[in-house]
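Good morning,

Attaching, inline, the backbone tokens for the sequence recovery test we're adding to the shared suite. The designed sequence is right after.
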């Protein structure tokens, strides 16, 4: 079962990459990532900190935004603006929309009992909005400036893809796990199993990078002036404040003692930093690991020969990412 997005020539001409992340869609992705295992290297420390900081009122949002299920659109829609502006708009959601979105969710999944009267109980709805703001303050607020700054790098990378490989390459490579270009249709496998068709009708599609949606793409059909499709962001993290890097007390960037014993202290640090900063260049990797560029290049070469890292070249720049084998090694107990 796939969700099919139908393109015309005008749609291809108007399709673009967003220069910024969308607060509610990114928050929805973060809430789902919090609830599911996996990607321990990238999100393990972030999950531990978040779970320690969340208060009981977070349960309201967790009840409505579940892994691999539909969520009410008013909580996860593609609203543009600052997080504060968008969260304030949620508080003004009309009752008719609340009721309609909840009915849509209830058609596929059972609602929690407390949510059934949400549209008619404004005090209850305001408590839900308080819960949403609390989730943002814990899950996204500490990292939002970094996420928005990295979006600029993401646009540059995707623009190069479109210029060198055309729109077909851009659409097919954005999220190969669950998105396939079968001209003139973009086929999207949804986490919820949604099956349907979307006719763009000349509006084009807005591609939005998601830093917490590492596997599944999300679609928002009601956004204006064009529908939105999220995809996993692959631009390197800011070396000065890595988005999900564990605190100094948790580790020094070298992973477990067993990993250091296996690979050596410096090589383990190089591997960990590639995992936490996918797509980083050799120069960025050297800065992250605290070594010289030649040393970083030497260790990356050894890791690549061992099948733990893969390296792609863009002009004269080597960009390093983890392989499935490297991920399995780092995620093992």
């Amino acid at each position: 079962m796939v969700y099919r997005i139908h393109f015309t020539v005008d749609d291809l001409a108007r399709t673009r990459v967003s220069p910024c992340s969308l607060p509610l869609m990114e928050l929805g992705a973060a809430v789902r990532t919090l609830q599911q295992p996996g990607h321990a290297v990238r999100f393990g420390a972030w999950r531990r900190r978040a779970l320690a900081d969340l208060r009981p009122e977070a349960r309201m949002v967790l009840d409505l935004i579940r892994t691999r299920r539909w969520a009410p659109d008013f909580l996860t829609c593609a609203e543009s603006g600052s997080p504060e502006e968008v969260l304030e708009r949620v508080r003004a959601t009309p009752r008719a929309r609340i009721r309609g979105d909840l009915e849509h969710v209830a058609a596929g999944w059972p609602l929690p009992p407390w949510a059934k009267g949400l549209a008619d109980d404004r005090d209850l709805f305001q408590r839900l909005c308080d819960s949403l703001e609390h989730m943002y303050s814990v899950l996204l607020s500490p990292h939002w400036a970094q996420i928005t700054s990295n979006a600029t790098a993401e646009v540059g990378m995707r623009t190069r893809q479109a210029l060198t490989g055309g729109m077909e390459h851009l659409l097919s490579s954005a999220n190969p796990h669950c998105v396939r270009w079968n001209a003139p249709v973009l086929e999207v496998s949804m986490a919820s199993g949604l099956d349907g068709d979307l006719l763009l009708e000349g509006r084009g599609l807005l591609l939005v990078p998601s830093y917490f949606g590492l596997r599944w793409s999300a679609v928002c059909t009601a956004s204006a002036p064009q529908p939105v499709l999220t995809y996993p962001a692959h631009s390197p993290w800011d070396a000065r404040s890595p988005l999900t890097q564990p605190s100094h007390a948790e580790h020094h960037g070298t992973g477990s003692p067993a990993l250091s014993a296996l690979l050596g202290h410096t090589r383990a640090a190089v591997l960990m930093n590639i995992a936490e900063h996918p797509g980083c260049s050799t120069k960025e990797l050297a800065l992250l690991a605290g070594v010289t560029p030649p040393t970083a290049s030497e260790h990356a070469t050894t890791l690549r020969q061992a099948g733990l890292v893969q390296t792609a070249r863009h002009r004269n720049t080597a960009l390093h990412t983890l392989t499935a084998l490297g991920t399995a090694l780092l995620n093992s107990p």
